[in-house]
Design brief:
The chain has 475 residues and is an all-alpha fold. The chain has one domain: Growth Hormone, Chain: A (Up-down Bundle). It is built from 19 helices and no strands. Helix 3 packs antiparallel against helix 15, helix 5 packs antiparallel against helix 15 and helix 16 packs antiparallel against helix 17. The radius of gyration is 22 Å and the shape is globular.
């Protein structure tokens, strides 16, 4: 029987801090392109539909590699895989900044390779956290971790547009990120442990002492898990909307400003990055407070209603739909109203990130959490943000081709191509209502003896790593 694994509380917090820093870089790297999209379009001479394909290539490579990293992450060193991913996206980022305009296909390919690096981190990092903290502690720590999705996204917009404004060259933004990535690799190797699977529940004996089931068996078990299936469809709807908004909103706000006569059209590089900076700041603030509010609401209301987590997600998405609709419809009359309703919608969306992750970890046994995360990541990207930026750009280009070439018609084309997002996000709310119907049964099955999770008769302190009892008392 393997020895019990333990970790001092302060080391768990240090590991959390490092993983949060890398998650920040991960999403800065993801959305830095959107902050300078107008400049990239002019540099490589690409249309809206081609620009949307930039994001599709990135996500396409990510979703193809995610199942591979999920399989490896359940069976091999997670630190080694994470280090490989960070180095890959850093080196590729530097390379992509030196591509000439006539070789635009290489820039598209480089975005795909960066997606592979991103897949390794997005798939595996949450499983490391799940083996350091559980229950209320895990929900709180995942909340902190997922704060850096919208914060990193917003800083990506701001860094891209800010550096472009200072240097006059959008490519310098891609050259700074790898320096931060090098620091991340060093911190990861030195300060982040690789705990045994299920260690937080003191089930490392189960996770390490028994042979793994086959990957095909894990997949079959997951698709029989209705909470996993419905929550995956719900988060896919979220991904569809956040993908379209995240990629196109800075340009949409720029065109709104042009239509209102507050901004001159962009005729040459560099384009004015004011809207990227403002949208980035809105993303940071709504993401920061949204994730905290969602995690705290989940922690409090789950004590009253065991189905609180999917119900919170459903309410947030159903309330987001009218906010997005009003933000788009009112854009032609009031830029301020657009920002207000857009910010409110983004706040409600951000409330779900940590809650969705906790739903997955609570209904899936520790031995295949990496595989479950990879499958969910693949589905939400292939049906979500892998296609939504391209579809939005394609519909915008089709509408523009049928209309007179004017700045007003460009604005209206992009506005109308966005409208489907309000309906998709409402559909996501329905999926989370379905999740609530199956949640308790699937959580009970995941916690059954022999699955790698403690049963309900175990005490609260048995859910913590050795040396973490003080944290339970403080909580």
């Amino acid at each position: 029987m393997p020895r019990s694994w333990s970790l001092p509380l302060w080391k768990a917090y240090v590991a959390l801090a490092v993983l949060c820093y890398i998650n920040l870089l991960n999403y800065m790297n993801w959305f830095i392109i959107s902050g300078v999209l107008l400049d990239i379009q002019r540099f490589f001479h690409i249309s809206d539909s081609q620009a949307g394909f930039l994001h599709t290539v990135f996500i396409g490579f990510l979703l193809l590699s995610a199942p591979v990293f999920g399989y490896l992450g359940d069976r091999h060193s997670r630190k080694a895989i994470l280090s490989f991913g960070i180095l890959l996206w850093s080196v590729t980022g530097v390379f992509s900044s030196f591509i000439f305009p006539q070789h635009s296909w290489l820039f598209f390919l480089s975005r795909g390779v960066m997606g592979i690096g991103t897949a390794s981190y997005s798939t595996i990092a949450p499983t490391v956290l799940s083996d350091l903290f559980v229950q209320d502690q895990r929900t709180r720590m995942l909340g902190i971790f997922y704060i850096f999705i919208p914060v990193g996204s917003g800083l990506g917009y701001m860094l891209g547009s800010g550096i472009t404004e200072q240097t006059g060259d959008w490519r310098w933004a891609l050259r700074i990120m790898p320096c931060l990535g090098a620091v991340a690799v060093i911190l990861l190797i030195v300060l982040v442990p690789d705990p045994p699977r299920g260690a937080a529940e003191k089930q490392e004996e189960v996770a390490m002492g028994t042979p793994h089931s086959s990957w095909c068996q894990d997949v079959r078990d997951l698709w029989r898990n209705w909470s996993f299936v419905w929550s995956t469809l719900g988060v896919t709807c979220m991904s569809f909307v956040t993908g379209a908004l995240g990629f196109w909103t800075p340009k949409f706000l720029f065109e709104v400003r042009v239509v209102h006569g507050l901004q001159l059209p962009c005729l040459q590089e560099p384009c004015n990055g004011k809207d990227s900076l403002i949208f980035g700041l809105v993303t940071v603030l709504t993401g920061f407070f949204g994730v905290i509010l969602g995690a705290e609401a989940s922690k409090r209301f789950v004590k009253v209603n065991p189905r609180a987590e999917p119900l919170i997600c459903a309410i947030n998405l159903l309330a987001t739909a009218p906010c997005l609709y009003l933000a788009l419809i009112l854009a032609s009359t009031s830029l301020l109203a657009t920002y207000v309703f857009l910010g409110l919608g983004m706040l409600l969306l951000s409330c779900n990130w940590a809650v969705v992750a906790d739903i997955l970890l609570s209904v899936v046994v520790p031995r295949c959490r990496g595989t479950a995360g990879a499958i969910q990541l693949t589905v939400l990207h292939i049906l979500g943000d892998a296609i939504s930026p391209s579809l939005t750009g394609y519909f915008s280009s089709v509408l523009r081709a049928r209309r007179p070439d004017s700045y007003l018609q460009r604005f209206l084309s992009l506005q109308q191509s966005f409208l489907c997002c309000a309906f998709v996000i409402a559909l996501g709310g329905g999926c989370f209502l379905m999740t609530a119907l199956h949640l308790e049964r699937d959580q009970t099955q995941a916690q059954a003896p022999g699955t790698g999770t403690l049963t309900s008769k175990d005490t609260e302190h048995e859910h913590l790593l050795p040396g973490m009892d003080a944290f339970a008392k403080d909580s």
